[in-house]
Structures are given as C-alpha cells and as structure tokens.
C-alpha cells in the first residue's frame, strides 16, 4: 500500500500523486471522467486538483465545468470521504469582482462548494497573486472561510518567492491562517520557476509543494520526439522549443532510466519529481483509465541517487 505523505505542516496526508482535474468536462466527457476518477481512487490516489476557471478557455464554456463534473461524481460514487478536493480562486471573474478581491474570494468559494456538491474544500488555493489587493485583506478573507469550516487548508499557486514569504509573514503576524502549500510549474524540463529561492523557502518553512505540468504537457511521456509527432496533437505545436533545445537530451536520459527500472517515461518523470526536496506530490492529468494505470506506479517507484542525478544533469 502506498505510504501517505503529510502535506507540509498541514493536517492533510495525501498519496504522492495528485490527479489533475483540468480535463474533466472538457477533453474527458462524463463517462471518461467518472472512469478516470474511480480508477485513480481505487488505485490508491487521494487528492483531486481542480479550479473554478477550468475550462473557461473552451468556446461555449464559462468556467466551473471541471468542478461540476467532480461534484456529480462525488454524489454518484459516494467517495467524498476517500478523497481530498483542492480547488482555486483568482482567475475566474464573477460575483464580487476579480482575482483575489475579498468579496470575490467569498463568492467564489460558495460557488465552488455548490458545484462540487460538498460543504468543505480540503485545500483552497489563491490561483495567482494579486498585487492590487492588500495581503492583509486577502488573508482575512481566506481566514473567514477557514473559521467557518468551509476550507481546511490554504495554498498559493504561481507566487514568486518574495510575495509568498510576505503573504505568510503578514498572515502569521495577524494570527490568521496562512498558505501552507505551494503549487508551482515544475518538471524535468521546466525548473527555473521553482528551483532556487522559492524551493529553498518551501523546504526551510515546511511548505508542501504540489507542482503542476509534471509531464510538461505530455512531452515527458516520450510522445513527441520529432516534427511528425508534433502533428499528432494540438499540444504538439508547443513542443518545438523543447525539441530544439534540451528536450532530446532529457528524453535520452529518461530512456536509459526507463530501461534500467522497467518503468515508463511518465513514471520516471513523476518519480523524479516525488524525490525532489520540498515536493509532496506532483499533479498529472488523465483522460483514459489506461493513462491512470500508467501514472499510479510512479507513487512507489524509487530511483537510485545515480539515476536521479543523471536526470537532473540532463536538464541543465
């Protein structure tokens, strides 16, 4: 059985892989979404990550589609007590204003709770920083949700080190709940946004880290190795810079480790993340049950120090 990990200094204990919910109600319809969610939880996964803005970028969508799908699954499956739900506020405008306006935080939380068919959110993220708002006012708005029992733990996504530090310090000074989790972009070929000052701060202050884009939009599965491969998917066109840069070197190093371990490239990429200082669990999405079955073994894959070092060096 996969050992659960404490998420930073919070009371949450989670499996070392988080299921990304951005695809639900978008590239995964109801049947596919339910099947993926069931397979993830039945396979030992515990946390599902979504956001109110998923998938507002799709023509005809308004945002909230992912939360609504997850909420319907929770009602039908009866598995609310087996999962932790993480969602976010700050990118979808609506009642109360935009971004992290205190009135928007309050209204957005109510809307998310309704769509998710639950009376509490395990982990509530500020989806992005909002320097137009006082950090004291933002902290007070989130504190009201915690005090009301609507939110268990607070997190920040896409924050720079200085802003994360000041937000936490100001909340602590006021005796209010503070961000205990960070969700940055981080993977084998995209490391500059987290490594360095931000990672050091999280490690030193026991901030749990759940990075997104763990598979670099599919690049680290080995799906895109040539210009011809790029034509197979809408996402493929985003891979040009990686293929022309360090991507090929990284895939070669991953191929070697995959041969040595018998693991897939996706499992190797996620296992590397799971082993990084400060990281509690990376986030990965799936639209098919087969993909879930490919992702889950990463939770128990232990790479050697030599294998970790070779992968790390390939991305430099």
Q: Please report which band the strand proportion falls in: under 5%, 5-15%, 15-25%, 25-35%, 35-45% or over 45%.
A: 5-15%
Tell how many strands the DSSP assignment holds. 10
The global form is: globular
Major sheet: arrangement of strands: 9-8-7-6-5-4-3-10
Calculate the mean pLDDT score and round it: 95
- What is the number of helical segments per DSSP (H or I, 4+ residues)? 12
Measured as a percent range, the helix fraction is 25-40%
Runs in which pLDDT lies below 50 for 5 or more consecutive residues are none
Major sheet description: 8 strands, parallel
Structural class: alpha/beta
Taken in chain order, the helices and strands follow as EEEHEHEHEHEHEHEHHHHEHH
Which SSEs are present, and which pair or pack?
Elements (H helix, E strand, L loop, with lengths): L4 E2 L6 E2 L3 E3 L9 H13 L4 E3 L15 H13 L6 E6 L12 H15 L4 E6 L8 H13 L3 E7 L3 H13 L5 E5 L13 H8 L3 E2 L17 H4 L9 H5 L2 H15 L3 H10 L8 E3 L3 H7 L9 H10 L2
Parallel strand pairs: 3-4, 3-10, 4-5, 5-6, 6-7, 7-8, 8-9
Antiparallel strand pairs: 1-2
Helix pairs in contact: 1-2, 2-3, 3-4, 4-5, 9-10, 9-12
Could you walk me through the main structural features you see in this protein, from its secondary elements to its overall organization?
This protein is an alpha/beta fold and 316 residues long. The chain contains 12 helices and 10 strands. It has helices at 30-42, 65-77, 102-116, 135-147, 161-173, 197-204, 227-230, 240-244, 247-261, 265-274, 289-295, 305-314; strands spanning 5-6, 13-14, 18-20, 47-49, 84-89, 121-126, 151-157, 179-183, 208-209, 283-285. Strands 9-8-7-6-5-4-3-10 form an 8-stranded parallel sheet, covered by helices on one side. The protein has a two-stranded antiparallel sheet with strand order 1-2. Strand 6 (121-126), helix 4 (135-147) and strand 7 form a beta-alpha-beta unit.
């Amino acid at each position: 059985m996969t050992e659960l990990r404490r998420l930073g200094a919070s009371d949450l204990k989670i499996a070392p892989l988080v299921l990304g919910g951005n695809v639900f109600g978008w590239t995964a319809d109801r049947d596919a979404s339910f099947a993926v969610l069931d397979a993830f939880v039945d396979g030992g996964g515990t946390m599902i990550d979504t956001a109110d803005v998923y998938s507002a970028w799709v023509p005809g969508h308004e945002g909230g589609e992912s939360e609504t799908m997850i909420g319907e699954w929770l009602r039908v499956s009866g598995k609310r007590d087996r999962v932790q739900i993480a969602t976010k506020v700050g990118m979808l405008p609506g009642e109360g204003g935009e971004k992290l306006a205190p009135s928007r935080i309050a209204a957005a939380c109510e809307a998310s709770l309704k769509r998710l068919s639950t009376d509490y959110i395990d982990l509530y993220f500020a989806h992005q920083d909002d320097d137009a708002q006082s950090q004291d006012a933002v902290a007070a708005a989130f504190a009201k949700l915690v005090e009301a029992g609507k939110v268990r733990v607070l997190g920040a996504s896409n924050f720079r080190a200085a802003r994360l530090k000041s937000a936490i310090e100001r909340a602590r000074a006021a005796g209010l709940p503070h961000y205990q989790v960070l969700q940055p972009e981080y993977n084998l070929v995209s490391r500059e946004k987290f490594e360095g000052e931000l990672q050091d701060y999280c490690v030193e202050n026991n901030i749990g880290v759940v990075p997104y884009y763990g598979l670099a939009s599919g690049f680290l599965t080995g799906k895109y190795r040539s210009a011809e491969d790029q034509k197979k998917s809408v996402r493929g066109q985003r891979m040009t810079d990686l293929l022309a840069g360090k991507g090929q070197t990284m895939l070669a190093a991953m191929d070697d480790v995959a041969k040595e371990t018998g693991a897939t490239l996706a499992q190797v990429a996620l296992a590397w993340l799971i082993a990084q200082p400060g990281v509690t669990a990376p986030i990965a999405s799936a639209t098919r049950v087969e993909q879930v079955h490919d992702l889950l073994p990463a939770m128990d894959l232990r790479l050697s120090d030599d294998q970790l070092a070779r992968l790390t060096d390939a991305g430099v």
